[in-house]
From TrEMBL:
GO molecular-function terms, A-Z: branched-chain-amino-acid transaminase activity
Organism: Aquipluma nitroreducens
Gene Ontology, cellular component aspect: cytosol
Keywords: Aminotransferase, Pyridoxal phosphate, Transferase
Pathway as given in its UniProt record: Amino-acid biosynthesis; L-valine biosynthesis; L-valine from pyruvate: step 4/4; Amino-acid biosynthesis; L-leucine biosynthesis; L-leucine from 3-methyl-2-oxobutanoate: step 4/4; Amino-acid biosynthesis; L-isoleucine biosynthesis; L-isoleucine from 2-oxobutanoate: step 4/4
Official protein name in the record: branched-chain-amino-acid transaminase
EC nos: 2.6.1.42
Keyword set includes Transferase: yes
Length: 268
């Protein structure tokens, strides 16, 4: 049984109508739960505040209530692994919010070992800093992913620069230097932020500059970051192939997983 915690109280999944993506004034957050612990809740709350502001909405929930609601949902549904999705939407003049458990199809171990396939999609998210679904782009991306049997598409803007994935951020690696598009061009991923911390700890250089779609051949390795995939090596962008065993990237993946273990240990 999946219980949903909402502004109307506790609701059973069966009697809940998900209006979330049918309004353009919808913001959301997806929070990873591992071993019954919700990860990086404060970072998600801070981003939620930014998304709400961009959409002209005011959040009427404190950080401590946000955190408590997530913990309550995890307890009620006895979640050990999965995602908690928070949705705030305005539809027909009414504000509505809900926390719900989303069992997720995470990448399989082979995806981490052999990498995933991608290609370019020429599209730009509006107000990229807000975590809102832009239905047009999302549908286009999902269609391309399904038709071409890809894992993800990389968005390329009008200047030919690669910004991010349709639901992930993207990094490029060359000689132990890590390149990723700046905050202003993307949804500022929580995973990306944590990857920055790990890279600093490892002493690698981060360059916050978008890579041109024409320049991808210059790079040794590419990876995606996101709440669900964590750090996922990319084997291909179209016909171009990349090294999924790049030592700096593999070290980063280890350090990231250690960082998560440490976070969970502290929260338990
Ligand atoms: N960019 C976009 C467009 C996304 O939808 C996501 C997934 N939320 C991300 C980046 C990655 O963000 P996060 O690491 O917070 O999941």
């Amino acid at each position: 049984m999946n219980l949903i915690l909402s502004n109307e109280g506790l609701i059973h999944e069966t009697s809940y109508s998900d209006i979330s993506f049918y309004s353009d004034q919808t913001v959301y957050e997806v929070i990873r739960v591992i071993d019954g612990v919700a990860l990086f809740v404060e970072d998600h709350f801070l981003r939620l505040e930014i998304s709400m502001q961009i959409q002209g909405l005011l959040i009427q929930m404190s950080y401590s209530d946000f955190k408590q609601n997530i913990a309550e949902l995890v307890r009620l549904n006895q979640i050990m692994e999965g995602n908690v999705k928070f949705v705030y939407s305005v539809a027909k003049g009414n504000a509505h919010w809900a926390f719900r458990f989303i069992p997720h199809n995470y990448p399989i171990p082979e995806n981490y070992q052999f990498g995933v396939t991608t290609d370019f999609l020429f599209a730009e998210r509006q107000n990229p800093n807000a975590k809102v679904i832009q239905v047009g782009i999302r549908n286009l991306a999902d269609q391309m992913i399904a038709d071409r049997k890809l894992y993800e598409v990389l968005l390329v803007d009008r200047d030919g620069m690669i910004t991010e994935g349709s639901r992930s951020n993207v990094f490029f690696v060359k000689s132990d230097v890590f390149y990723t598009a700046p905050d202003s061009m993307i949804l500022v991923g929580i995973t990306r932020k944590k990857v920055f911390d790990c890279l600093k700890e490892l002493g690698y250089t981060i360059v916050e500059e978008a890579v041109s779609a024409k320049e991808v051949d210059d790079f040794d390795a590419v990876f995606l970051t996101g709440t669900s995939p964590k750090i996922l090596p990319v084997i291909s962008i179209g016909k171009r192939l990349f090294n999924v065993q790049n030592p700096a990237m593999v070290r980063l993946m280890d350090v990231y997983n250690q960082m998560i273990r440490e976070y969970i240990r502290k929260e338990l």
